[in-house]
Amino acid sequence: MRPRAPESIVYVGTREPIALGAILDARAELSPDAVFLRFGAEQRTFAQTVQRAQLAADALASLGVGRGDKVALMLPNSLEFIDLWFASAMLGAILVPVNTALKGDGLRYIVEHSQSRVAVVDEPLQEVYEAALGSAGPQLRFGRGAAREGWPAIAELLAGAHPRAAQASVRPGDLASVLYTSGTTGLPKGVMNCHAAYHAAGREFAERYVRVRAEDVLYTTLPLFHVNAQMLSTVGALVSGVPLILSPRFSASRFFDEIREHGATVFNYIGAMLTMLHNQTPRDDDGENPVRLTVGGAAPAELWERFETRFGLQILEIYGLTETATFCLGSPPDDVRVGKLGLPVSWAEVQVQREDGTVADAGEPGEIVVRSKRPQILFEGYYRNEQATRTAMEQGWFHSGDRGRRDADGYFVFLDRLKDTIRRRGENISSYEVERIVNTHPDVVESAAVGVASELGEEEVMIVVVVHERRTLDPHALVAFCEERMAAFMVPRYVRIREQLPKTATQRVQKFTLREEGTAGAWDRMAETAR
Fold it and tell me: How far apart are CA 450 and CA 383, in angstroms?
């Protein structure tokens, strides 16, 4: 039976999706004076958010920006990002969020490939942008911060007097954003998401999984250039009418103090956030915080219950990609099963398929594939990349590139990225499983397992580890630790110690970088044995 929301929560929209501008307008009509957003010392109501978005729309329209134009934002979490995002939505323009960690060819590729008409870049990133693009890219470019040569201040443009821009007639099936994937396996692909995906994801998140209460306060440290912070946190707050605390960045040492300061009750996690929080020195007040729920992906099964007990909250696992409206699987809040991803969301069909496209049996590994029951919620394809779209979509099914299984209870389990599966001596090795075991070593903060070239063909296993401060790690001891806990064919041959793992801004390890570094300088178990 579908859970009922508390009577005090009035959700925007019905099962039929509506566009982002309409979501914002409807919420401002329902609760104009309620607080929507807190960022640092600043606070905005829903009505003020509409007003600021309209002023930004007026400014963009004065530049000639309109329906179908791309607006590239290379900005950290900020109020300007919110203003320009919703202004674009009002005009029928298309948001192109740019990862603030990008530089060089990767940055140039996204800005040029997206065909953006306007670029707004944070002041500390302008030199990086200029080095990558030179005079190429949008001729209309603005800076967040003080004006400088070639970079008029976006604040001055937004504060100017401009003719009132009429809101475009935007349909739910119109394109809302082109969001480039993290590029962990090559050139990024521009994921095209419609307005309908934003409404469906935000509503599903808030109503069916968070089950928003009147007293809830949402909190995110995840970047706004990522779908999680956009679709789940921001739109989730809009459709439910509760406040959102937008933090500038993730800090493990300050995280729960900021949570307490704002009275946040729900936060989203991704990547290694839970591990990093758990690795903080225990405090007597760890459990004295207002959080009741954290929602996200890749919670370590061996840490799950200890984390919940220590911080006095519930972990709710979801799974998805940028292409699947952030998430297509979720754990029912009343029946969360540790280490599992949950069941399909209301709009999605999810299967595990064999290589020949047939459905795998219960418990049998295969590729996780997704199909939408409703139009325009699954992504519309990759921008200007028909080949990649055809490769990803087959008979209406989106192929995630993730290896998983569906157990007899109907719950899905993530096993590995297909491309992160290491092939050694005829055996398929899950890099996730190698990492899971290595991460239990008391001296290891986090790790990444990758396949590297072998002189015998196929691959060898290399483990790259980050060691706790003020501790050392003997590769011999780590291998012995692994030999006791994993099959012999899984035990790493190479061990490399790094101060930190290369990551995207959303905390995904860039394994292609580790593969490119190869084994030069790494400790080699076979060489040690030979000596």
Answer: 30
**Is the CB of residue 296 less than 8 Å from the CB of residue 320?**
no
Pick from 52, 79, 57, 83: which is nearest to 69 by CA? 57
Cα–Cα distance for residue pair 212/291, rounded to 1 Å: 13
- Long-range contacts of residues 259-264, Cβ cutoff 8 Å, at least 24 apart: 259/219, 259/289, 259/290, 259/291, 260/288, 260/289, 260/290, 262/38, 262/217, 262/219, 263/217, 263/290, 264/217, 264/218, 264/219, 264/290, 264/291
Tell me which residue of 450, 429, 458 sits closest to 495, measured CA to CA.
450
Of 123, 267, 272, 94, nearest in space to 195 by CA = 94
CA–CA distance, 460 with 508 (Å, rounded to integer): 22
Residue 1 confidence (pLDDT):
36
Please give the Cα distance from 273 to 218 (Å, whole number).
17
Half-sphere exposure of 322 (CA within 13 A, CB side): 22
396-427: per-residue pLDDT in tens? 999 999 999 999 999 999 988 887 888 887 78
Residue 382 to residue 178: CA distance in whole angstroms:
8
CA distance 381 to 324: 11
Q: Residue 151 has what DSSP assignment?
A: B
Percent of the chain with pLDDT strictly greater than 70: 97
Q: Which residues of 172-207 are buried (b: 16+ CB within 10 A; e: fewer)?
A: bebbbbbbbbbbbbeebbbbbbbbbbbbbbbbbbbb
Q: Which residues pair with 182 in a beta bridge?
A: none
For the chain, give the mean pLDDT: 93
Other beta carbons less than 10 A from residue 374's beta carbon: 14
Average pLDDT over residues 289-313: 95
365-404 pLDDT per residue, tens: 999 999 999 999 999 999 999 999 999 999 999 999 999 9
CA distance 9 to 226: 27
Tell me phi and psi for residue 378, to 5 degrees. Answer: -65, 150
Task: Give the C-alpha separation, 490 to 204, whole Å.
Answer: 39
**Residue 366, both tokens:** 């295969």
Three-state secondary structure call for residue 51: helix
Q: Which two tokens stand for residue 462?
A: 């290399």
